[in-house]
Design a protein that fits this description.
FAD/NAD(P)-binding domain, 2 domains, six-stranded mixed beta sheet, globular, 31% helix, alpha+beta, binds flavin-adenine dinucleotide
Length: 448
C-alpha cells in the first residue's frame, strides 16, 4: 500500500514520517523548487516561512504543552527542532536552515519514503493526505474547491481576539442578548457572576468619553503591514476595526460596537457603545470579541482592548489577525479522520484544516497519519483525549458547529480544553497541564 502525501511543509513532513515509521510506503510530492509559493524561498522540506520560533517551551504554556505532547508521540519535526535550537529564553527557536535540512535529510534517507519534486494539480487515486498549506492555489486549489462544493474554502482569515471568561471583570460586563428583554437564566449559564443579566452574549459598555478614547487609540495603534502578495480585499462583513475607525468617529458605533437593543442593568440605560462577546466554546470558558478582526499588532491589541470596561485585565487566549490563508470549512466537510466526506480516500492535514501555526500544523499531520495507519491496518485508533492540546485541536477541526458559526483557524490555547471540575481557580493552567499529561500517557499506553 503506497500513500501519497502532498506538500512537504510542517504537516506533510510529519505525516510522511509517521506513515513510513508505521511500515507504509509513502510518496511525498513537493512542488519546490519546480514551483515556489510567494512565501517559500528554499527547496528544503520543513521550511519555516517566517519566524524561526516554535513559540514557548514552558511545559505549562499552551504551545509548550503541545510540543511536550508531540515529543511524547515521537514527532520527527519537534526532534529536529530540539536538535537545532538556538538560545531564545523560554521559546523554542531554531536555526532555520539546519532545522529544515535535518527534516529533508531524514525524509530523503528513509527507506520507505520516495520524494517527488513536482507540482500536483489533481488529487491522485489511492489514499492521499493533502498538506499544501495556507497558500494552496492554482489547479489543485480549484480541484479541492470543487470537491468541497464551491463555497467551503476560504482564502483569507479575519480572526477576532478571544479572551478567557475568568479574566472578564463582571463589575462592568453584563450578560444580555440584543433585544432580549425578558430572557431567563438558562442551564449552563454559569460563565459570569450570574447577577449581571442573562443571555448568550457578554456586553462591555462604554461611555461617550471611553468610546472616543478607544477610537483614537485604535487609529493611532501600530498595525501589521500586509505581505507583498496579500492584497487587502475586505468583505464588508469582516472589515478590520481599524479600517472602520478610519472611516469616521461614529462608524464603529454603528457597526460592531452598536449598543442598540441593549440595556445596562446597572444604569437602566442603553450604553453609548458596546463591545459584544460571544461564547467561543461549549464550556463557556472563552469568548470572542464579535466583529473585532484586526491587523493591530499583538501588544497593541492587549493595550488597546484592555481600555474596554470589563476587559481591563483580559487574558487573551488568541489575538485578532487578518491574513492570506487558505483553509477549508473542516467541520462541515471533513469526517472524524479528516477525510473528505465526498471522497474518503482524500484526507487533509495542517493549516488547510483550520489550525494556525507551525506546531499546530505539525500536530495535525501526526494525528491524521495515526488515524490513517489504524484504518489501513483494520484496527481502531481513538482520537487524542479532549483534555490534551492535541485533542483540543482535533475537536476544533472535527466537532460539528451550528450553521451560523463562521469557522476559523486557531492556535493552541487553554480555551480549547474542558474546564477543570470545581471552582478552584489557583494554578489552573498548571493543573490543566498535569491533567493533559496524564490523559496523554493513558492514550499512548492504550495505543501500545
Ligand atoms: C507569510 C506567512 C507567514 C507565516 N508566519 C508564521 C509564523 O511566523 N509562525 C507560525 O507559526 N506560522 C506562520 N505561518 C503559518 C504557517 O504557514 C503555518 O503555520 C505552517 O507552515 C503550515 O504548515 P502546513 O504544513 O500546513 O503548510 P506549509 O508549511 O506551508 O507547507 C505546504 C507545502 O506544500 C507545498 N505545496 C503547495 N502546493 C503544492 C502542490 N500543488 N503540489 C505539491 N506541493 C505543494 C508547498 O511548497 C509547501 O512546501 C505563516 C504563513 C504565511 C503564509
Amino acid at each position: 500500500m503506497r500513500i501519497t502525501v502532498v506538500g512537504g511543509g510542517m504537516a506533510g513532513s510529519e505525516a510522511a514520517w509517521q506513515l513510513a515509521e508505521a511500515g507504509f510506503d509513502v510518496t511525498l510530492v513537493e512542488m519546490k523548487p519546480c514551483a515556489m509559493s510567494p512565501a517559500h524561498q528554499t527547496p528544503l522540506l520543513g521550511e519555516l516561512v517566517c519566524s524561526n520560533s516554535l513559540r514557548s517551551d514552558d511545559p505549562d504554556a499552551p504551545a509548550g504543552l503541545l510540543k511536550q505532547e508531540l515529543r511524547a508521540c515521537g514527532s520527527m519535526v519537534i526532534a529536529c527542532a530540539d536538535q537545532h535550537r538556538v538560545p531564545a529564553g523560554q521559546a523554542l527557536a531554531v536555526e532555520r536552515f539546519g532545522f529544515a535540512r535535518a527534516i529533508t535529510e531524514r525524509l530523503a534517507l528513509h527507506p520507505r519514503i520516495r520524494i517527488e519534486r513536482r507540482r500536483l494539480d489533481e488529487l491522485p487515486d489511492g489514499p492521499v493526505i493533502v498538506c499544501t498549506g495556507p497558500l494552496t492555489e492554482g489547479a489543485l486549489g480549484e480541484v479541492i474547491r470543487a470537491e468541497l462544493g464551491g463555497d467551503r474554502m476560504y482564502f483569507y482569515d479575519a480572526i477576532a481576539p478571544i479572551v478567557a471568561t475568568e479574566s472578564i471583570d463582571w463589575d462592568f460586563a453584563f450578560k444580555q442578548s440584543r433585544w432580549d428583554k425578558d430572557s431567563k437564566p438558562q442551564p449552563g449559564d454559569e460563565g459570569g457572576s450570574g447577577d449581571v443579566g442573562v443571555g448568550d452574549y457578554v456586553n462591555c459598555p462604554l461611555t461617550k468619553i471611553q468610546y472616543e478614547e478607544f477610537v483614537a487609540a485604535v487609529n493611532a495603534g501600530r498595525k501589521v503591514l500586509p505581505h507583498e502578495f496579500e492584497e487587502p480585499r475586505y468583505f464588508e462583513s469582516c472589515m478590520p476595526i481599524e479600517v472602520m475607525a478610519e472611516r469616521g468617529p461614529e462608524t464603529l458605533r454603528f457597526g460592531p460596537m452598536r449598543p442598540i437593543g441593549l440595556r445596562d442593568p446597572r444604569t437602566g440605560h442603553r450604553p453609548w457603545a458596546v463591545v459584544q462577546l460571544r461564547p467561543e466554546n461549549k464550556y463557556l470558558t472563552a469568548y470572542n470579541l464579535v466583529g473585532f478582526q484586526t491587523r493591530l499588532a499583538y501588544p497593541e491589541q492587549q493595550r488597546i482592548f484592555q481600555m474596554i470596561p470589563g476587559l481591563q485585565k483580559a487574558e487573551f487566549l488568541r489575538y485578532g489577525s487578518i491574513h492570506r490563508n487558505t483553509y477549508i470549512d473542516a467541520p462541515s466537510r471533513l469526517g472524524t479522520s479528516f477525510e473528505l466526506r465526498s471522497r474518503p480516500n482524500v484526507r487533509f492535514a495542517g493549516l488547510l484544516t483550520g489550525v494556525e501555526g507551525y506546531i499546530e500544523s505539525c500536530a495535525m499531520g501526526l494525528v491524521v497519519a495515526w488515524l490513517l495507519v489504524a484504518e489501513l491496518r483494520g484496527t481502531t485508533q481513538a482520537p487524542p483525549p479532549p483534555e490534551t492540546m492535541l485533542g483540543g485541536l482535533y475537536l476544533h477541526v472535527t466537532a460539528p458547529r451550528e450553521p451560523k458559526y463562521k469557522y476559523g483557524p486557531t492556535n493552541v490555547n487553554y480555551g480549547l480544553l474542558p474546564p477543570l471540575p470545581g471552582s478552584r481557580k489557583d494554578n489552573r493552567k498548571q493543573r490543566m497541564a498535569v491533567r493533559a499529561r496524564e490523559q496523554l500517557a493513558t492514550w499512548l499506553a492504550a495505543r501500545g
